[in-house]
């Protein structure tokens, strides 16, 4: 099938996506400090692309209803743990707690990944989890 | 706290762990071909260590009841996707399907990780998922 | 700035993006076999998401005119080399050649990355380059 | 061979492993600050699993007598260097020095890995080595 | 072809390489602080090897005239972004700006790599770019 | 210290390095098939750079006498295992065996790295070791 043929029928409604983006961003990241949001970093360099990226990531990916938000955040924690991305993991530890995951579940996911991505990556992630819990007063 | 002091009280019951290991291995990997099981590879080089590793990984980690087996397998799929480990992912795609995850859920987890670990890693994982589904006749 | 406020003004024209996506995809990937295109793999699992991903990646990212297509492909070759993603690298080696990069330039980029991502990753990439050149009869 | 059949004969003696764990931990990590030991981080989240992990990693893996402790620590330095895990590398730089590796040998191992894991990863590791040596007054 | 036979004809002129090394190092890294140069870290551990590494990396790799210095630095930025090496990226962000790349081009390269190496790695790189620009007063 | 000043005194003797390169290459890789040697791949794209890379890697790095060849190969096995580079690992498994490491030692190094780089990476490496041993008839 040709790309050109296929995309003629593109019927994405940007207003609908913008609405979903705002709603999902609020659900996930309301407890994250403004200066820690990647969106502001993107905007610093390119406002239009920042919008495109947010609409795509938050509005078209996170807002999908194929798996519950809790599962989505736990698999995100797993991915960011083995990738050793503590800054991004901080955001999604907040998101996981904000959508109702318990700290025990988040810790368990991190421990589980130690088999695949190694123990040092899990240690870094547990340290992030500990800090986020302290920051939220949920220890 | 001193290690020596702490571990004096170690009360791991090896028989109990061996039982859990067997039960969990059966639940997860009954559809995996014998020659694709890492356990046999480990045994080839060191029988005693192979036993220790299985007891630890399957009996002491996978058998924990802190999160449902479905969640455990989905986070494992996420970790193996971003780590780009197609052989191991094959085993856990089987395990995920064997504990009741749907193919749509597994695909969704892989798509979600493309934001964190990149699109090429997700493509490799989707290819593995497609092959496992074909192998099982579940397409 | 609030997400909700910001995105109210979202003015993405999906028809325009669909057009750019088709044009850029043709420019880059016309020499790539249909079954090697990730787009078809995505469609296999989720047609709507496949469309969203193509519109975003090809239409909103690759089609940007901030750097020449040649530079865009060479930096992509560098990224895929150090990430050791030979399948995806194959696609972008085609794209690099299709937009006018020479094989000497592509090889030089790969050699350069050996300092950062190590020599084995560069070796894998040179092997891919060699295969693509043979496939195209450009050796 | 069936798992269940195989593990019936499991004859791990937990007391013996606990003893080995304590002895090996002391040999390796006596110079590491208490708050930098992963063991305490694991305990913070799950005391029982922390014990299981220590018994497995330190008692069943590190304590094996297949290669000398010096070789074991040098290969660990190599692995942690290319994985870019400076916190864990700090622990094992201590361990390497504690079991008798010289600083010249540790530096040489790090330099050697620059061919495989790239120069930036080696630079991070050399910085860790420099800091540990300063901390120990062994510069 | 035998190694021994081939290398009999080795006609590398070390004086010529030393000259190229100095010239290229000055072109790239004149704005980098002395204590941030890996060369000094290498020298701390092994003076002779530090020389060999500099002659090879800077004199024999960077000084090659197969691609323009701007392209060389942009592909380096791409590689260091997906490898998540912020310290080394800092050096090459300086180098990229010093050989005439604009901040818009550097940002674009980083955004482009987010498709391959993931968004978190790109975020780390954009933060480095922001800091280097502030340090240079070029924001 | 200025680069230009420092390198004026560069006293590398290219003939001496060429000799060391040939000798070390023979010691390590005499059992490796010609078409599997990276050197030939490099030569395919750039004969002069191939020579520079060989002189640097084999003549200036591997030939250093700071650690025994056996240790050098075991740390290389560790690095290539956690980096998941099976092709390169094959070369250095040959090299390790050629300089006198036993298969038990190589397996032990791979098992040890599973703690740091994860079990799937170790599994890939054990598979390579098994294949090399079969190829050499040393099982």
UniProtKB/TrEMBL annotation, chains A, B, C, D, E, F:
Keywords: Lyase. The keyword RNA-binding does not apply. SUPFAM superfamilies: AhpD-like (SSF69118). InterPro entries: 4CMD/NDH-1_regulator, AhpD-like, CMD-like. The keyword Lyase applies. It comes from the Bacteria. It holds the Pfam family CMD. Residues 49-131 form the Carboxymuconolactone decarboxylase-like domain. Its EC number is 4.1.1.44. Coiled coil: none annotated. One of its GO terms (molecular function) is peroxiredoxin activity. PANTHER family: 4-CARBOXYMUCONOLACTONE DECARBOXYLASE FAMILY PROTEIN, GAMMA-CARBOXYMUCONOLACTONE DECARBOXYLASE. This is Predicted 4-carboxymuconolactone decarboxylase. It comes from Desulfobacula toluolica (strain DSM 7467 / Tol2).
């Amino acid at each position: 099938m040709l790309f050109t043929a296929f995309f003629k029928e593109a019927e994405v409604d940007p207003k609908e996506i913008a609405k979903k983006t705002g709603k999902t961003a609020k659900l996930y990241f309301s407890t994250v400090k403004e200066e820690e949001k990647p969106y502001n970093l993107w905007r610093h360099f390119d406002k239009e692309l920042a919008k495109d990226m947010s609409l795509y990531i938050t509005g078209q990916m996170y807002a999908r209803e194929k798996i519950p938000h809790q599962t989505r955040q736990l698999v995100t924690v797993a991915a960011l743990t083995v990738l050793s991305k503590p800054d991004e993991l901080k955001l999604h530890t907040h998101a996981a707690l904000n959508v109702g995951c318990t700290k025990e579940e988040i810790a368990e996911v991190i421990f589980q990944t130690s088999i695949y991505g190694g123990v040092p990556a899990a240690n870094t992630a547990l340290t992030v989890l500990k800090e986020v819990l302290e920051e939220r007063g949920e220890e």
